Amino acid sequence: MSFLLNVKRLLLTLIEKYHPFTIKYFKVLVVIIMTLLLGAVLIMGWMSSSKVKEIVTEDFNEQQLLVARHVATQIENSIDILKRELLLLSLSPSIQYFEIPSLKDRMETAYSRIAHMGTLEIRFIENSTKKVHHVIENHKCATGDIYPEDLDYLEWARKEENRGDIFLTPLTTVSYNGQSEKPIMKMISPVWQVSTDEAYPVPLNEFSGVLVFVIDLSHLTGNITKDIRSGKTGYCWIIDGNGIFLYHPEKDFVGKNAFEVRKGKNPAISFEKINEIQRDKMLKGEEGTSWYISGWHRGIEGEIRKLIAFTPFKLDEKIQNRIWSIAVVAPVSEVKGTIHSIHVRQFYLQAIIIFVILFGGLFINFMILTWSNILEQEVAKKTIELKKSEQRYKSLVENAEDIIFTVDYKGNFLSINKYGIRFFNRKVEEIVGNNLSEILSWPNADMLLLMIQKVFDTKESKQITHMFIIGDREYWFNTNLRRLYDEQGNIYAVLGISRDITERKHMEEYSYYTEKLASMGTLAAGVAHEINNPLGIILGFTDLMLEKATPDSAEYDMLKTIEKQGLNAKRVVENLLDFARHKEHKEEFIDINENIGTVLAVMGNTLLLKKISVNQNLQEDLPSVKADARELQQVFFNVINNSIYAMEGGGILTITTRSFDNNEKIEIRISDTGHGIKKEHRIRIFDPLFTTKEVDKGTGLGLSVSYGIVTKHEGSISFETKTKEESAETGTTFIIIFPAVKKSRVENKGGENGRKDIDSR
Amino acid sequence: MAEKILIVDDEPDMLKLLSMIIREKTPYEVTITNNPLEALDIARKGEIDLVIADLKMPGLNGMELLDAIKRVVENIPVILITAYGTVESAAETMQKGGFDFITKPFRKEQILFTIDRAMKWIQLQRENKMLKDQLKSKT
């Protein structure tokens, strides 16, 4: 298993190293394969061509050999015919018994029959008379004198053991009848008086003489071979056991020694090869095929390569050297045609294969190119996409409204996004590389580091809500901590995403507060209703009793006090009910500035008395607000009243109005230079019944009632305050925001009709 | 013969206060009950000229009582005493033929003024009726 795994790993490494899609390698591979294929095709073509040549040559030579054998058979046949003719003639009684003229007749007939086979002469030598009867071409049978050699023949023929035998003389060359030298062989047969005829009814069985056929071998063999064509121009030649040409198309060669005559004809050419073949093979009676260099061919001179097939013809089995060798030769050009046509076919085939390979290679290269182009485009596309996605992520991170950062185990910052840099109000290099504890104040940094290390150690993501103090402000953050892994799967950092939830935290507190106020309102309304009854009864009876009491009496005084306190209680209840919004409510389009003016006018005397100067920064052309004017005035009154209370000994009251958010909202800021609201009071100032004033100076309902009114109008009320512990310049600013009515709408709905429409809602 | 005013309230102290105010400040007779159903019986007997009823009562509330009385006796003014701020019920009172409404806590002048107005209205009704009767007898 581990071996397999190793192999797999190795393969993967190789693939990675020599990646098939590394176009360079692939191209080289294709080129190598193409070259190899082309080489293989060429080599195989060459091999096949030489093989074809060999086969065709061999085939051709085989054919030549068949021709040679055929010639051998023909020659054998001819010799056999001659032998038969000789025997036939020797058995003729007219010959045996010298019956003239039938003897002559018989010889002439025989001559005429075998003259075409190269028979030059038929001789019959009478043993007794030593006379010679002979027939030659164009002559009647004549009788002449004996030749010296004829005596030798008689001597041989007379021997009993040679009876019935035919003796073939060795080759001689003679110029016969004044003609050029011819290779001559004589066929000699003894004639015995064995036949019978009318004159000799009983054979005498005496030696009669000797019959001699003089054969021109060149004629005999020439008859057979002259028309032989090996291929178109190939021919046949024959040598005897001594290397003498019996036949050769070059007439001069006939009767000459083959080893010498060639040299004589063209000394410039080395005939070693053919001489070797003649000496070692042909003259030894072997059969075979080969090639040699010749100096001519049917009248063409020059070095010619020839194919040769040779076969022996054994003239006489008993006697050595009586072997002829028949050669069929043809110039190699004979087979060239065949080879050429095969070569042409092969060439086309090769051309097609090469074309296929080249085309295939080109096609593959084209495909690679296309593929790589597509790949490149794809890569380019993906790169762009990657870039985009990277940019997207980067911009996501950079433009996030969260602090996004990474830290190592020790709490050193590895990175931080723009928001974080902005938040901490430092430079990147002041944060990245530095420790949490340098950026954050204790104990925030320690707690955060503890959590970060926990995330490193426990592999769990964490979410924590914690506080940063930057300057003198508190910020609440919700931080998600999760681990970041590198390619090897090791944790290298913790990613933190901190969301500023200060606002949310405030909102939560605010909504909790709103809820509290709402439930308190309901409670207060209930209480108020219940109190109204007994209060009414108390006040009613007090009223009745006051009428009965003497004005100056102590009882009257006491009753008056009861009434005063009862009325106080009544006022509280009325305010409570106002807060609970159980009062009639009438909305119209009102001008905030105008209403502020009304309130300031009403309070003018008080302000003067308390030495408070008023600054008014009222925006002209302020959009209208749809509200109950009386209620809004009450809000302004309550807030200004509180401001006056805060500025004991005088101060400045600043009232600013403005519109914002594209004229969709109106903000009223009422600032005083008073003592500010104490920290512990801040959270409770909108609570009903909460007051810092002396018992009989405030009901603790002013701000809660104002709060109720503002929220009823879909507005908001908040404050900013500084006490002397916090700042040299103390004071409180109440910020009231109302949704504005679009100007166009006011104008469109303006006039009596518009107002009615809205009122009737 | 003094006119009779029926006061209906589930709170005995309130009954006591209202009857004291009326007895001391007006010449009218006062009948009180803290049971709205009994109030209906009293009204049915026809000896009552004006009804003052609290709006919020167990069993039969002021509004239902107003309805019932209007069905039983014609032309009897009913003054309802409502809790502060229940403007909607006050408006309903007027729609259903209530004479007027007083919100709690009230001052005695308020209730006396309203009773006075009611009595004047009764007077007018009576005179009207008398004149009509005279007109009838003449014709």
Molecular structure report:
The complex is a heterodimer of chains A (761) and B (139). Chain A is an alpha+beta fold and 761 residues long. Chain A has 4 domains: 276 residues, PAS domain (Beta-Lactamase), CATH 3.30.450.20; 101 residues, Beta-Lactamase; 83 residues, Helix Hairpins (Orthogonal Bundle); 178 residues, Heat Shock Protein 90. Chain A is 49% helix and 23% strand. Chain A is built from 21 helices and 24 strands. In chain A, the strands form 5 sheets. In chain A, strands 1, 2, 3, 4, 5, 6 and 7 form a 7-stranded antiparallel β-sheet that branches. In chain A, strands 9-8-12-11-10 form a 5-stranded antiparallel β-sheet. In chain A, strands 14-13-17-16-15 form a 5-stranded antiparallel β-sheet, sandwiched between helices. The radius of gyration of chain A is 73 Å and the shape is rod-shaped. The two termini of chain A are 86 Å apart. The C terminus of chain A is likely disordered. In chain B, α2 packs parallel to α3. Chain B has a single domain, classed as Response regulator (Rossmann fold), CATH 3.40.50.2300. Chain B has a 5-stranded parallel β-sheet, with helices on both faces. The longest helix of chain B has 31 residues. Helix content of chain B is 53%, strand content 17%. The relative contact order of chain B is 0.15. Chain B is an alpha/beta fold and 139 residues long. The mean pLDDT of chain B is 85. The chains are: A alpha+beta (761), B alpha/beta (139). At the A-B interface, α14 and α15 of A face α1 of B.
